Amino acid sequence: MSDDAVDKGKRRFLVQMTTIVGGAGAVGLAVPFVRSMNPSARAEAAGAPVAVDISKLQPGEMVTVEWRKKPVWIVNRTDQNLADLAKLEDKLADPASEGSIQPEYAKNQYRANDKNKNILVMEGICTHLGCSPKYRPEIGVVDFDSDWSGGFFCPCHGSKFDLAGRVYAGVPAPTNLPVPPFRFIDESTVLIGVDPEGVA
Questions:
Q1: Is residue 198 part of a domain?
Q2: Whether residue 6 has pLDDT greater than 60
Q3: Which residue in 10, 87, 115, 157 is the catalytic one?
Q4: Which structural domain range is residue 12 located in?
Q5: Where are the alpha helices (DSSP H) in the chain?
Q6: 157: annotated active-site residue
C-alpha cells in the first residue's frame, strides 16, 4: 500500500468524522433555539394561547385547563343538552347574553361558534364573587332545584347557570359566565385565547 493511499483514506475518514460531529453540534444548537420560540410557562400564564386536545372528551364530559391563571372549562354537550337550552329562556336573567362577556361569534343561544355547537368553552369563575361553580350535568330533581336541566351551581352563594353558562334570574351572580376567545385548529383541538381566522 502506498503512502498516498494511506493519506487519502485518513483524510476521507477525518472529513467524514468532522461532518458527523459538526452535524450533531448543529442539531444540538438548533434544539434549544427552536424550544426558545415556544411560549414559556410565564407567557402562557400571562395569556399565551393554550391548545387543548378534546379527542377523548365524551358527550356530557368536561375538562378544565388554565388560561391567564383562570380555570377554563371545555364541555362536550349532548344534543339533548342543546335542545334543553331553548326551554330555559324564561328562567334566565340574560338569555340573549346582551350584558355578558363573550366574542361576537359566541353571542348566541349556545354561546359557541358555528363549527361545533356541542363544545362549550367558558371561564369557570362565578360572576358574583369569584368562586368556582360546580359542574352539575344531571337532569331532574337536585338539592337546589326541583326541575334542573343540567348546568353549573355555585355553592358559595347559590348562583345557577345553564349549560351555556347563562345565569338564572334571582340569583346573586349578575351576568353570564365569560366566554374567552377560542377557535378550532381541527376537529379534536381547541385553541383558547385566539379568535377564529378572519374574525377580529
A1: no
A2: no
A3: 157
A4: 1-38
A5: 3-36, 41-46, 79-87
A6: yes
